[in-house]
Design goal:
Methane Monooxygenase Hydroxylase, Chain G, domain 1; Beta Polymerase, domain 2; 2 domains; 303 residues; alpha+beta
């Protein structure tokens, strides 16, 4: 699917034809062939922009600059707490910018795209937006982690613990993706003159480097906290199960004590007080006293 935009008064305006910005969402075979033949895109680079396992990189082609950068994949409840990353391709020409996405997302929404000065500026803002997309997902992961920790404190099953393992796996993906973007941003700064960045764009690029480093540090902190506390949380689940088993054993023993007394007086042999008119109440009294003695021993031993 193709969408076209023009830059008018610092804003992106959707256009039906001759757009300065071309957005291809999961291009089909015909669209891929058109990009390869008309814009001379490298086939491997084009495929890399749709490969979620591809690392960020930058390549100078004869007529354009090709960038592959990482961004978070849209999360849904069907993902079961697994936050994934995906790749996107940016192809910068002198008068055109081509963006290749694997899924349709509101890519140009938000305050970041209100003042666009050039195609180079738009390219940087797309990378900048991916950083804040990571930060938004990190806040969600932290919130989910706090909720799961509260449930683990009273849980006796592994379900919530497994969810935390999945979140930890997601943070590993995010750390790798953010670090990969960091290498790409450094290359952009190193080749800033060749790309043609203005002084304002160079300053903006420095801000992007700072924001990306902070994003990486935040993801690293969350990952270390989850990894460091995982053994403690597993011990909590095991301890909760032990407490339950202990309680069940105490209840079982408490029931067995009066049962033993009643069973002793139920044997088919001669027993004391068998001819007494109040034999039933005497036996029930013995059973009640045995329960009382067991309760006193339980409190004394602090079971």
């Amino acid at each position: 699917m193709l969408k076209q935009y023009n830059i008018l008064d610092g804003k992106l305006v959707e256009n039906q034809r001759d757009g300065q910005v071309l957005v291809y969402v999961n291009p089909d075979e015909n669209e891929r062939r058109f990009l390869l033949e008309n814009y001379k895109l490298d086939e491997h680079t084009l495929n890399s922009s749709l490969d979620p396992d591809e690392l960020s990189r930058m390549e100078f082609e004869p007529e354009h600059l090709a960038l592959i950068y990482k961004r978070p994949k849209n999360y849904s409840s069907a993902d079961q707490f697994l936050f994934r990353v995906t790749s996107s391709g940016l192809f910068l020409f002198k008068d055109r910018l081509i963006l290749v996405l694997s899924e349709e997302i509101p890519i140009f929404e938000g305050k970041y795209f209100t003042r666009i000065n050039s195609l180079q500026n738009l390219m940087l803002k797309l990378i900048y937006r991916s950083i804040f997309h990571f930060l938004e997902h990190l806040r969600i992961i932290n919130s989910i982690s706090d909720s799961l920790e509260q449930k683990i404190s009273t849980s006796m099953e592994n379900r919530y613990l497994l969810n935390l393992f999945i979140l930890e796996k997601s943070l590993v993906y995010y750390l790798n993706a953010i670090n990969s973007n960091s290498m790409l941003i450094e290359k952009l700064k190193y080749n800033s003159i060749k790309i043609g960045f203005s002084a304002d764009e160079m300053e903006f690029l420095d801000d992007i480097i700072i924001e990306n480093n902070q994003c990486y540090k935040q993801a690293e902190i969350y990952s270390n906290i989850l990894a460091g506390m995982m053994d403690a949380r597993a011990s909590i689940v095991s301890n909760n199960l032990n407490v339950l088993m202990k309680t069940l054993n105490i209840i079982t023993i408490g029931i067995m004590v009066p049962t033993l007394v009643v069973s002793a007086f139920s044997m088919n042999v001669k027993i004391p007080v068998q001819n007494h008119p109040d034999a039933f109440w005497i036996i029930m009294g013995f059973a009640t006293v045995s329960v009382g003695l067991f309760y006193a021993l339980w409190r004394y031993k602090k079971w």
